[in-house]
Design brief:
199 residues, mainly alpha, elongated
Length: 199
């Protein structure tokens, strides 16, 4: 490793996990207050009493910072869940969910919906850092269930489980003007996802 690379690595690791969480929360607060378009690295730097150079060094860009801030609100990654049964996996996913955080996330994602269509960079950052890792974790969970014989390998609903779950988060606020909570998520999985999978 060159001296310059070593120095860069040292600078990157200077921020503690606690400080990183504080920066992420400030980003999310600003997103709720002003929206994505009006969010600037200058505003984040001022809110967190840090330098703009530090923010760019740690996160590279505004889209990456926003995506990582959203990522840090997830209570558990789907890729980390493996209870031995699909019902157990989904039950643990619901148990780890937080009603207040889901309400905040729903509001944030609604606010980001327009920005995603306007900003390819934001769309890519959200896909790379937030959406794709969770979909990959969900697909591994479903493959294990197929291997255990819980789901038929030719079940046509297998490819649409991410669509069902994401759709629930988008549809409920539109149809009933409320955010998804654990009770709704559990009922939706039992009434829609499991029957579609033949579980």
């Amino acid at each position: 490793m060159t001296e310059e690379a070593s120095e860069t690595s040292a600078r990157r690791t200077r921020i503690t996990p606690e400080r990183q969480a504080e920066l992420h929360e400030a980003v999310l607060d600003l997103l709720r207050e002003v929206g994505y378009d009006a969010l600037t690295m200058d505003a984040v730097a001022a809110r967190t009493k840090s330098s703009k150079a530090t923010l760019y060094r740690q996160w590279g860009s505004k889209p990456e910072l926003v995506a990582k801030a959203l990522r840090c609100t997830q209570p558990v990654s789907l890729g980390e869940i493996d209870t031995g049964t699909l019902r157990g996996d989904f039950a643990l996913m619901v148990a780890h969910s937080d009603d207040a955080q889901m309400a905040k996330d729903t509001a944030l994602m609604r606010g980001l919906a327009h920005a995603v269509h306007e900003s390819p960079e934001l769309h890519k950052a959200l896909r790379d850092l937030l959406v794709d890792p969770e979909i990959n974790g969900l697909q591994r969970m479903l493959r294990r269930s197929v291997d255990r014989g819980e789901i038929r390998p030719d079940c046509p609903a297998l490819d649409f489980v991410p669509h069902m779950l994401i759709g629930a988060f988008i549809a409920l606020p539109l149809i009933e003007d409320r955010s998804v909570d654990r009770a709704f998520l559990g009922e939706f999985i039992d009434a829609v996802v499991f029957p579609a999978l033949g579980v």
